[in-house]
Amino acid sequence: MRAEGKRSFLRAVIVVGAIGLFFFLLIFGMAFWLGNRDQFGGPKVALLEVNGLISESDGIIKQIQHHIENPTVQAFVIRINSPGGGVAASQEIYEEIRKIRQIHDKPVVASLSTVGASGGYYIAAAANKIVANPGSITGSIGVILQIPNLSDLLRKVGIRSVVIKSGPYKDMASATRDLTPQERQLLQQLIDDIHDQFIQAVVEGRGLSRDQVERVADGRILSGRQALELGLVDQLGNLQDAIETAAKMGGIPGKPQIVQVKEREFSLLRYLLGNAATAWQQKLLGREGTQFSVDYLWHW
């Protein structure tokens, strides 16, 4: 009887263990499917969004890399609603968009929302085509460096700055004094060089002559309709028009499926097991959230 009881207990343990393993594998499988469901089904258009001031590039670049690894993504749409931002961040996103076209041979369509100006237009210029609303604000091809000058205020309250520096230009652009003529000349040369980089990027991205770009590269803003007349955008339309254009360019028949990485995605594994599973799941599935920081004084 005692032996029979031990065998019954052992069978019960095996059954409970098997049931537990089954549910664990079921939960894991569902979590994996939810995290990678965009890689199933037919060809898709990847939708990426650039919103607000452009102060970093990591978030959008990670999204691009994620979609590039998805074999079902055949085309990209970059939805831009930005007045510009950091110089380097805009350049980095521009280069990644060019890689989508040149290295991975997938079409990219930029869709301008309310605003796609300055650094926002710089990013759009890397796309195969740009679609803008007639009233979208775009253009603003230029560079600006803003330097606050608090010297008069500090003098009124009796505060003065003592500077010890290793060279004559080490405290250039200090907020406690005016620029010297030599410093102003150096900064102007720097701004002109970066402006030249902006113009060249538009020339290469849009296939325009340098003379065509220089005529409007004075910081002016344009409506979408004005930009179309000047060759800075390719067609007028909304986001859906841009998606349909990208789908046609990517050879996707019918109504295209849209795939998009959100900053915070639902995770069954995280929901069931708690936040302790977050880091592990991100490493396993290659998912990391994105965030946006503050604007720079130095911007397009």
The fold-level CATH name is 2-enoyl-CoA Hydratase, Chain A, domain 1
Label the structural class: alpha/beta
User: What is the total tally of β strands?
Assistant: 10
Element order: H for helix, E for strand: HEHEHEHEEEHHHEHEHEHHE
CATH architecture: Alpha-Beta Complex
Q: Uncertain regions: pLDDT < 50 for 5+ in a row?
A: 28-37, 273-299
Q: Class in CATH?
A: Alpha Beta
Shape: flat
Q: Kindly report the name of the CATH homologous superfamily.
A: 2-enoyl-CoA Hydratase, Chain A, domain 1
State the end-to-end CA separation.
Answer: 85 Å
Largest sheet: 8 strands, mixed
Total domain count: 1
Helix content percent band: 40-55%
Question: What's the alpha carbon Rg, rounded to whole Å?
Answer: 27 Å
Chain-wise SSE layout:
Blueprint: H1 2-36, E1 44-51, H2 58-68, E2 73-82, H3 87-102, E3 108-117, H4 119-124, E4 129-132, E5 137-139, E6 144-145, H5 151-156, H6 181-206, H7 210-214, E7 221-223, H8 224-230, E8 235-236, H9 239-249, E9 257-259, H10 268-273, H11 278-285, E10 298-299
Parallel strand pairs: 1-2, 1-9, 2-3, 3-4, 3-5, 4-8
Antiparallel strand pairs: 5-7, 6-10
